[in-house]
């Protein structure tokens, strides 16, 4: 019977681990597409290279062909629901399929030619799918042209780095180990009496240890192999047999990690729980030596569950936040930004300022332009904003993009009376508005021409960071709302906002036509605004799933260890419990002392976790602690009744 239980529990454990590995394999294929035979990933930043995007992409294509790198740029699929990816062949050499299959539930990805990068930034993520022999020369070229690069290799070490930097997967492995240690404790508990009798019969201690641990390992391997075979079959039939080797390598890696950790604990616990001659002479129960270990393991898993509850909730919260962020990036899928050609110089830039202003004016008449600019910490250094996190300027177009379907002229914003605007913000704006506005008014006169708002609800209004255009979600901000961009801001400000990606225009074709109408088609380049943001937002849901799997494993480990600890306590207290029950005492009276002790210890551990986390997630931790402590009487009742029945039948 105990062998079947060991096989069942180990199968449950490795099933949870297989689910976690499935999520890891999905993340791995998102990073290193299997059907592209990806060797490495390199993230390139051309901000310091002094090259325009088109020239940089042409150079990369030439290098890819010369060095047989098979360089592929990763981009989001901005059509549909924006959850897919496309891969753009940077060079002209080499053959790729038109579509590649993705692991998991991700939609198939398309492979496109270099023409698809005509309106993309050169900076971004690239895959090396060809020969690795030219990587040294490629790295040299990047260094010579001051291109910042960050490399990741597609090997076991790279996979481990990919997942271990996520606390959720580290918790999954810890939970798996805790569950297996609980199983070790159960195995040693049911084997304790037989070990003691064999020791009295003169059987060698080393032989007893070897046979017990070997039997345990065989039971665990039966459960693990059964689950792994099913997982591999599911992967092959549902995902494609191309993915099976990589899935098997990841699964085997983490199986081995858990098995090694488990057997190490088993050896230590088996040696520590060896029944000595004095114990046997005193006729003490053989499981007595495991009592302290069982209580320590129960306390450890209880602490692990409490410590994991708040991070798990945070992971889900972050996943929802990321989903919200991704939905806002979807609103920018058809938005484009304008970048100015390199080599124009300061004088050349000044000559086109009026043209840029006219472009903004025409676009604004068609509701085809939006501004969001949030000053960073460096710009606001020394500025007292009071309770607000930051300062931003928005246009009606941005509110329409971020609040489609919302009613009101300023959805998501609440008016901020002048008396509530911090003095530091007033001073900062009044001193700078004269430089930014078209009529050069400054001071209080300039402040009276704009409206001020703050967020209706904390963290619900996405803003674009100044100088990069990335979406940020501050809890609250002072928002300067400008109903008309061209009438309010001068051409210099508008051109600067355009060059920093804080001014976005609707539609690639209409924006190109607008630039051509003002003779700017050869002096500017139009780029999609949302490519990088959509890619960054596509990964977070996997981390939340990993956290969920780890939390489930921890809860199972807590249940198993609690039952085992209760079983050992019931066996040790059987000489006391049996006559008390026969004398008519209720179970609640018999169990009261041990349950109260556990409750006191559990409350102390919960308070310790809350203090260590400085109150972060206190309600969640307290709720989890209450549920765990309420389970204590149940486990003790089950164990004590089982012990009573077996003593009655002279089986214990």
How are the SSEs ordered, and which strands pair?
Elements: H1 2-31, E1 40-45, H2 53-67, E2 71-76, E3 85-89, E4 99-100, E5 109-112, E6 124-128, H3 135-144, E7 148-153, H4 156-164, H5 167-200, H6 205-239, H7 244-272, H8 277-281, H9 291-331, E8 335-340, H10 345-351, H11 353-365, E9 369-374, E10 390-394, H12 396-402, E11 413-415, H13 423-436, H14 443-447, E12 451-455, E13 463-464, E14 471-472, E15 477-481, H15 485-488, H16 491-499, E16 503-506, H17 508-517, E17 524-528, H18 531-537, H19 540-572, H20 574-582, H21 587-612, H22 618-648
Parallel strand pairs: 3-5, 10-15
Antiparallel strand pairs: 1-6, 1-7, 2-3, 2-6, 4-5, 8-16, 8-17, 9-10, 9-16, 11-12, 12-15, 13-14
Q: What does the model show?
A:
- With 652 residues, this protein is α+β, with helices and mostly antiparallel strands.
- It contains 22 helices and 17 strands.
- It has helices at residues 2-31, 53-67, 135-144, 156-164, 167-200, 205-239, 244-272, 277-281, 291-331, 345-351, 353-365, 396-402, 423-436, 443-447, 485-488, 491-499, 508-517, 531-537, 540-572, 574-582, 587-612, 618-648, and strands at residues 40-45, 71-76, 85-89, 99-100, 109-112, 124-128, 148-153, 335-340, 369-374, 390-394, 413-415, 451-455, 463-464, 471-472, 477-481, 503-506, 524-528.
- The protein has an 8-stranded mixed β-sheet with strand order 11-12-15-10-9-16-8-17. The chain has a 7-stranded mixed β-sheet with strand order 4-5-3-2-6-1-7. Strands 13-14 form a two-stranded antiparallel sheet.
- Strand 4 and strand 5 form a beta hairpin.
- Helix 5 (167-200) packs antiparallel against helix 6 (205-239), helix 5 runs parallel beside helix 19 and helix 19 runs parallel beside helix 22 (618-648).
- The longest helix is centred in the middle third of the chain and has 41 residues, at 291-331.
């Amino acid at each position: 019977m105990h062998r079947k239980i060991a096989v069942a529990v180990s199968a449950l454990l490795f099933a949870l681990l297989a689910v976690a590995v499935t999520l890891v394999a999905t993340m791995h294929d998102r990073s290193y597409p299997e059907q592209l035979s990806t060797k490495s990933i390199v993230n390139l930043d051309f901000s310091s290279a002094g090259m325009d995007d088109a020239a940089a992409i042409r150079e990369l294509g030439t290098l890819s062909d010369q060095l047989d790198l098979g360089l592929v740029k990763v981009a989001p699929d901005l059509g549909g629901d924006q959850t897919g990816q496309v891969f753009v062949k940077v060079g002209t050499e080499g053959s790729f399929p038109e579509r590649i299959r993705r692991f998991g539930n991700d939609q198939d990805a398309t492979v496109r030619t270099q023409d698809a990068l005509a309106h993309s930034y050169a900076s971004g993520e690239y895959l090396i799918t060809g020969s690795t022999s030219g990587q040294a020369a490629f790295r040299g070229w990047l260094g010579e042209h001051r291109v910042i690069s960050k490399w990741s290799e597609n090997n076991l070490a790279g996979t481990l780095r990919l997942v271990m930097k996520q606390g959720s997967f580290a918790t999954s492995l810890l939970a798996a180990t805790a569950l297996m240690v609980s199983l070790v404790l159960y195995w040693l508990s049911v084997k304790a009496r037989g070990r003691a009798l064999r020791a009295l019969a003169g059987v060698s201690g080393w032989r007893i240890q070897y046979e017990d641990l070997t039997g345990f390992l065989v039971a665990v391997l039966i459960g693990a192999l059964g689950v792994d075979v099913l997982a591999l079959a599911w992967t092959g039939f549902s995902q494609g047999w191309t993915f099976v080797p990589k899935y098997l390598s990841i699964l085997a890696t983490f199986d081995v990690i858990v098995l090694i950790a488990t057997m190490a604990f088993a050896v230590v616990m088996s040696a520590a729980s060896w029944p000595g001659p004095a114990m046997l002479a005193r006729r003490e129960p053989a499981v007595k030596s495991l009592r302290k270990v069982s209580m320590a393991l129960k306390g450890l898993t209880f602490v692990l569950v409490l410590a994991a509850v708040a991070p798990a909730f945070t992971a889900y919260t972050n996943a929802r936040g990321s989903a919200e962020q991704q939905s806002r990036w979807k609103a920018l899928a058809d938005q484009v930004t304008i970048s100015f050609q390199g080599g124009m110089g300061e004088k050349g830039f000044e000559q086109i300022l009026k043209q840029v202003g006219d472009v903004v004016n025409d676009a604004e008449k068609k509701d085809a332009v939006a501004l969001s600019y949030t000053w960073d910490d460096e710009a606001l250094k020394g500025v007292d904003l009071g309770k607000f996190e930051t300062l931003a300027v928005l246009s009606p177009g941005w509110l329409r993009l971020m609040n489609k379907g919302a009613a009101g002229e300023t959805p998501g914003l609440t008016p901020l009376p002048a008396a509530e605007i911090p003095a530091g913000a007033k001073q900062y704006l009044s001193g700078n508005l004269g430089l930014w506005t078209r009529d050069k008014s400054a001071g209080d006169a300039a402040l009276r021409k704009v409206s001020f708002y703050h967020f209706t609800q904390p963290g619900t209004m996405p803003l674009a960071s100044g100088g990069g255009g990335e979406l940020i979600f501050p809890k609250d901000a002072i928002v300067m709302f400008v109903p008309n961009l061209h009438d309010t801001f001068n051409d210099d400000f508008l051109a600067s906002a355009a060059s920093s990606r804080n001014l976005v225009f609707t539609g690639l074709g209409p924006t190109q036509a607008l630039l051509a109408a003002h003779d700017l088609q050869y002096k500017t380049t139009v780029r999609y605004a949302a490519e990088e943001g959509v890619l960054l937002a596509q990964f977070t849901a996997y981390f939340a799933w990993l956290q969920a799997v780890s939390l489930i494993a921890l809860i199972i480990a807590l249940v198993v260890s609690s039952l085992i600890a209760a079983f050992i306590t019931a066996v040790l207290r059987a000489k006391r419990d049996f006559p008390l029950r026969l004398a008519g005492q209720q179970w609640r009276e018999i169990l009261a002392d041990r349950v109260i002790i556990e409750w006191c210890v559990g409350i102390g551990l919960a308070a310790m976790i809350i203090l260590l986390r400085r109150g972060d997630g206190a309600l969640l931790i307290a709720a989890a602690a209450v549920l765990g402590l309420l389970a204590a009487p149940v486990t003790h009742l089950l164990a004590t009744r089982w012990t009573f029945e077996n003593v009655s039948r002279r089986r214990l």
